[in-house]
Design a protein that fits this description.
The protein has 151 residues and is mainly alpha-helical. Helices cover 77% and strands 0% of the residues. The protein is built from 5 helices and no strands. It starts with a helix and ends in a 7-residue tail after the last helix.
Length: 151
């Protein structure tokens, strides 16, 4: 729940920023000189890119949460079996051991979105965010029946 609140607050701040920057871009365009219109258009591009990025990220999070809920209903969510340091951080060797099992599971059933979901969690636990995101994107695509491109 805490993560959802943090995400909502961050998104709200970004939307406020996009509106503020966008209004400055419009003001520059309204000035009417070639230089200010050029800068105004350039300034308007930033909020458009930001809104697009925020929308895509929100869709990704929403879809990943839907998969988590479906997997939870099936009783297939990965159990947190990681060892932790006294400070609460995940033990690297423990994360590597779980990751190896998840990778083997995914290699055995590459067309199953559930194995990719669990692999994404293992990547996340191993602090490999880019690969965690790619694995989750593949889980979402497999779940939705979309073609999956191999890299």
């Amino acid at each position: 729940m805490r993560a959802k609140i943090s995400y909502a607050v961050t998104a709200a701040v970004l939307v406020f920023y996009f509106v503020l920057v966008g209004s400055r871009g419009v003001m520059l365009i309204q000035s009417g000189t070639l230089l200010t219109v050029t800068f105004g258009v350039a300034v308007l591009i930033l909020p458009v890119i930001g809104v697009w990025f925020l929308w895509k990220n929100t869709q990704f999070v929403r879809r990943a949460n839907a998969l988590a809920a479906e997997l939870d209903a099936e009783g297939g969510l990965p159990v947190d079996e990681l060892k932790r340091t006294p400070g609460g951080r995940v033990d690297r060797d423990s994360a590597d051991e779980v990751f190896a099992r998840r990778k083997a599971e995914t290699e055995a059933a590459p067309g199953d979105w559930r194995t990719w979901f669990r692999l994404a969690v293992a990547y996340h636990d191993a602090r490999d965010t880019p690969r965690a995101r790619k694995a989750m994107q593949r889980a979402i695509a497999l779940h939705d029946g979309k073609p999956v491109h191999t890299a």
